[in-house]
Amino acid sequence: MESQNQAAHLWQRSATDLAAAVRAREVSSVDVVRSFLDRIEETNPHLAALVDVRPDEALADARRADEAVAAGAELGPLHGIPVSTKINTDQRGRVTSHGVPALAGAPAEDDAACVAALRDAGAVLVGRSNAPAFSYRWFSTNDLHGRTLNPWDPARTPGGSSGGASSSLAAGMTPVAQGNDIGGSIRYPAACCGVVGIRPTVGLVSGWMPPAYADTPAGRTQIDFPPTVHACAVEGPLARTVADARLALRAMAGPDLRDPVGVPAAPRALPDVRRITVSVVRGIGTVKNHPAVDRALDEAVAHLTDAGYEVEELDGLPLLAEAARLWSLLIYEDFRPMLPLVEQVGGEDIRTSLKYSFAAAASVWGERPSLETYINGWARRSTLITRLQEMLGADRMLLTPVSAELPFEQDADLAGPERAVEMVDAMWPMTAVPALGFPAVTVPAALVDGLPVSVQLIGGRFTEERVLDAAQAVEDRTPRLVPASLGTSA
Question: Which residue is catalytic, options 35, 86, 97, 357?
Answer without folding.
Answer: 86
